[in-house]
Write a structure and sequence with these properties.
By secondary structure, the chain is mainly alpha-helical. The chain contains 6 helices and 3 strands.
Length: about 120
């Protein structure tokens, strides 16, 4: 039997932990995907991290979980993750929204630059 996941209480989530966790573009991608999925059902780890090795997937989800950005629950053989957006917004209003506007803008610029190179 596996150990249950540990999640920090909302009051223990820090801005430093959030910014550290989201300083990596892979983790920003994961959170961006989780924020866009059904809050009730979440997303399994492999869906949120296509193309990464299982150990990398576990590592990134652990960093996000330790920072308080996601809640993970084992369901059968899958781990289902849900973004803790409402809890984060309560303590740090607008933070995630601002980070993801910037993240989305950077991703779009990168996509346009890639398109230019290929044409």
């Amino acid at each position: 039997m596996s150990r249950p996941f540990s999640h920090p209480a909302a009051a223990d989530i820090t801005i430093d932990g959030i910014l550290h966790a989201l300083s990596d573009s892979v983790r920003r991608d994961i959170i961006f995907k989780l924020m866009g999925c059904d809050k009730e059902h979440g997303m399994n780890c492999s869906e949120s991290c296509e193309g990464l090795s299982p150990s990398s997937i576990s590592f990134h989800h652990k960093v996000l979980r330790d920072a308080g950005l996601i809640r993970s629950e084992k369901k059968g053989v899958e781990v289902i993750n849900v973004a803790r957006k409402a809890e984060i917004d309560e303590y740090f209003p607008g933070l995630l929204h601002t980070i993801f506007l910037t993240h989305k803008s950077a991703a779009e610029k990168k996509g346009r630059a890639k398109k230019k190179k290929t044409t």
